[in-house]
Amino acid sequence: MPKQRSKKISLFKQWIEPFNADGEVFTSDGTVIYCQLCDRKIPCIKKSQLVQHVETNVHQNGIKRKSNSSKQVFFSEATTSKVNTFNQDLCLSLVAANIPWKKLQNTEFRQFLEKYTNKHIPDESTLRKTYLGPCYQNVISQIRDEVGDSYIWISVDETTDINGRFIANLIIGVLHREKATRSYLISCKELSKTNHSTVTRFVNDSLKILWPTGGNDDKVLLLLSDAAPYMVKSGDVLKVLYPNLIHVTCLAHGLNRVAEKVRDMFPNVNKLVNNIKKIFLKAPSRVEVYREIMQNIPLPPEPVLTRWGTWLEAVVFNASHFEGLKSVITRLDPDSSASIKKCSDIIKIKSVKNDLTFIKCNFEILVKCIKKLEQSKLTLKESLDIVQKCSTQLKNIPGDKGHQICLKMEDVLQKNQGYQMLSGIQKVLSGDEDGHLPINYSPDMASNMKFSPITSVDVERSFSLYKHILSDRRTHMTPEHMEQYIVINCFMRDT
């Protein structure tokens, strides 16, 4: 051992010996001094630095906890690992439960944790800067282990967050012939702008997170997205990079576009739905009148254009309770609100009642089918049967309006080339002689498509979670930390 190192060990031993009189508090390997109570290294050039640490509140609180603690932290274990296990587990638990790190700054909560864990509770910035990254890497490693070299499907979409940034998410899932599998969010990144080029680059870079060494391009069999032109163009480019890729535009989106066509065909009904929504918004006196007349019937549903089928749900509700709603609107003062006046005028139009009847009778099937497609773990056959049943019922609607909707449905399905290819694969899986496989598909590939999804609901749900995490009360997370946070949260949520 060099003289200098031997001298330093001896010196450190003299410094820490008085503090270890009642039990081992400090340990040293001759290069650093480690405080077992605080779980941290103490950079010491002078003894005064050690004394200064001993006088800190953190160390004094550690002394108080020591009497209740039976666990010894060995120096060799602490210095070989860059992260503290307790802190890492704490970080993982808070992220999994979506508890903001700032809650640790609450004095009562911090004292409670320290009292019953006998551990020093780190600052929120310590968790964010030191422990979030390792937690994220552990989750990515687990996803890699679970996916392995399996065939996969991917789903991509883009949204704008509360800060005005373009955010893209990529969901993946294993294609297995015997069972439906869970999905994984592997990437959530900010895009400079939204076009086919940025989306293509995002997907390609994100798959490198799953397979860093590459060589698995033939394992990506299915891409799900919405039918936006830039997504369709991105799918065409990705087919060149991934030779076995089938691009399917979300069928739930497709049915919702048919529902939007219905809305456009009945403008008076649309006005009625929109104004009924406004009547009871922040108006307790009107709600009281409603409950008096309608009794146990809930308030009319509020349609949200970005949520599939909610407009039709509102129309069906209004049709089912038309007379009751008419009584409520008649009871309200039309001069007190423009929305009441508009509703009062609209319900007097004879065609509105007829239109509500027509929509409820013929188009409620769209709402039911969208809800069924949103379910998880459907087989490919079950999913395609839902779409086919909906298409068949729409074809049977009489009259010119029914014909227009039928044409819209046919247009949606014909433009979805991936849907046509999956239909051919399903016929093969069902033993139908009319079935056909893509030229480059082997029997092994096709058999693993048995549980392939046909909607992008998983990636849509990841955006709902994103907006829940990045609320108006928590807007300062960096894109990098946000990606790590939501990937962990999504993974732990489904385990």
UniProtKB/TrEMBL annotation:
Q: Could you state one GO cellular component term attached to this entry?
A: nucleus
BP terms from Gene Ontology: regulation of transcription by RNA polymerase II
One of the record's GO molecular function terms: double-stranded DNA binding
> What residues does the DUF659 domain cover?
122-279
Listed Pfam families: DUF659 (PF04937)
Task: Please report the name of this protein according to its UniProt entry.
Answer: DUF659 domain-containing protein
